[in-house]
Amino acid sequence: MLNKGRSEADLFSFLETKKEEDLDYRFILSSMCTLPHPVAVRAHSMFIETNLGDPGLFPGTASLEQLLIERLGSLFHLSTAGGYSTSGGTESNIQALRLAKEHKKKIKSPNIVVPESAHFSFKKACDILCLEMRTVPLDKTLKMDAHKAAEIIDKNTVCLVGIAGTTEYGAVDPIPELAKIASEQDLFFHVDAAFGGMVIPFLDRPLPFDFALPGVTSIAVDPHKMGLSVIPSGCLLVRDPQMLSLLNIDTPYLSVKQEYTLSGTRPGAPAVSALAVLDYLGNEGMRAVVSGCMKNTWRLIDGMETFGVERAITPVLNVATFICNKAPDRWKVSWTRRDHLRIICMPHVHREQIEEFLVDIGGMYV
Ligand code: 0PR
């Protein structure tokens, strides 16, 4: 702690130098986050002091959070879905598994069944919740094998998880088949659409992944990824709003007497930012954003293939992966566990960056 405070000018010049050490988003091709939309930034600063942990003090903000859930519910074909704004996919996944575990409380040694491609947040969740995590192998297109999932499920399974947009490849698991298995076995079926939830509905040919499938119990979706909101902004949606009360704990001295959320103090600003982007862009605006990202993804794949660099899988979302072991230094790319080059064509990755990247990588291959 400084004994005597420093001047604002001095403080901000220090912060400025530190900020300059961060990478410029322009060169970041490895991230599922992006620059927030200007309306998200504006809404964020407008609601900066709000705390949804004590919603009775901020009823306006709390109603905007519910409006966000309603918008996402309708987008996912169930306007009556319940839910709340989380800090992101990790929290949404933890909470979904808490719900699933509570739902089948009598099971003494509970397990969950996830694809091998599941995000590492499921490991964290299983660790916290003392759940056994059973992984299902992927098929050749890196999607969960639904038949193998059915074989692995047993009487102690409390949750089946499918991914709509895997972290590494953007693959979409066979959600309709998995939903059917879940319905038949009366299983809680959680869809992790942290990435894909803000992409799939805006594609020219959306894949089925949401509440339109009767077996889907809950969905995680992150506005801080393709929803162009500020960080941290996630949402957990549940088919039956009453189900959330399974997690209720007493909060006697707050403005509400019970809460089902994980965090106590909870920022309202990211939830309002997420809503602001959705309402500002509307369906048409979001379709335009997603369409631009998909065009760039395909331009990148075509460009790479002219250098003889093959795609690892044919993407359905804006994640391009390649059989390739080198990339130009000035670009921040990532590598999957299968050693494939991974580039996510987020909204901040414009066509000109793709062309520049192709020129750079072309120089390494010819
Ligand atoms: N589920 C899926 C399918 C995800 O892809 C992610 C994160 C999560 C859950 C967890 O979400 P939170 O990180 O919001 O809790 N996927 C990205 C990843 O792990 C997160 C990320 C984003 C990492 C930007 C790095 C980065 O620069 O790659």
Distinctive features:
366 residues; alpha/beta; Aspartate Aminotransferase, domain 1; Aspartate Aminotransferase, domain 2; 2 domains; 7-stranded mixed sheet; 3-stranded antiparallel sheet; 9 helices; 14% strand; binds ligand 0PR
Secondary structure layout plus pairing:
Layout lengths: L7 H14 L16 H9 L12 H17 L6 E5 L2 H15 L7 E5 L5 H9 L2 E5 L9 H7 L4 E7 L11 H10 L3 E5 L25 E4 L12 E5 L10 E2 L7 E2 L9 H38 L12 E4 L11 E2 L5 E4 L6 H15 L1
Parallel strand pairs: 2-3, 2-4, 4-5, 5-6
Antiparallel strand pairs: 1-7, 6-7, 8-9, 10-12, 11-12
Helix pairs in contact: 2-8, 3-8, 4-5, 8-9
The structure holds ligand 0PR.
Summarize the structure.
With 366 residues, this protein is an alpha/beta fold. Helix content is 37%, strand content 14%.
State the end-to-end CA separation.
55 Å
> What is the general shape?
globular
Output the CATH homologous superfamily of the largest domain: Type I PLP-dependent aspartate aminotransferase-like (Major domain)
Strand content: 5-15%
At the first level of CATH, the class of the largest domain is Alpha Beta
Overall tally of structural domains: 2
